[in-house]
């Protein structure tokens, strides 16, 4: 069943659009003399809200050692599959040999990254961290793939109270009765 909508005829002022023109001019004049709200980027930067999820990076501990142990949890949890890790062994005789593994290659494709923060949440070593950087740009697709060196350059050093890579002292391990 069709529903008929009756339309009332327009008045003379409505047909001439004069009230609408004046209303539009009033808004235009109001914005013409209002204070400018344009931010002069990059000289001015917006304030970043707390909890902002920015660019994922790799961080080192206060001793400058890489924290990543190539567990690949971040790679498996990444929804768009933006993270690629090539695990590698730590050479024999190295000071951190007890860690067993370190990434040979670590890449994050920023064109695929959706800034969800799951990689940071799942990392057991707190090696991957989301920074407050919000403007990533490049001229080619290759420039938008952050390799291991670039990830450490962006991430830097993160204060860490755990010092996981320090070997336990012999007195502590042998003094408790376990050999």
Secondary structure blueprint with pairings:
Elements: H1 12-16, H2 18-32, E1 56-58, H3 73-77, E2 83-89, E3 101-109, H4 118-122, E4 128-130, E5 145-146, H5 148-155, H6 170-174
Antiparallel strand pairs: 1-4, 2-3, 3-5
State the gist of this model:
With 179 residues, the chain is α+β, with helices and mostly antiparallel strands. The chain is built from six helices and five strands.
CATH topology of the domain at 56-155: Alpha-Beta Plaits
Number of strands: 5
The coarse silhouette is elongated
Largest sheet composition: 3 strands, antiparallel
Structural class: alpha+beta
Q: Return residue spans where pLDDT drops below 50 for at least 5 consecutive residues.
A: 169-175
Mean pLDDT: 85
Q: What strand line-up does the widest sheet have? A: 2-3-5
Helix content: 10-25%
Provide the succession of SSEs.
Answer: HHEHEEHEEHH
Alpha plus pi helix count: 6
Please tell me how large the radius of gyration is.
Answer: 29 Å
Strand portion: 5-15%
CATH class of the domain at 56-155: Alpha Beta
Distance from N terminus to C terminus (CA atoms, Å) equals 89 Å
CATH architecture grouping of the domain at 56-155: 2-Layer Sandwich
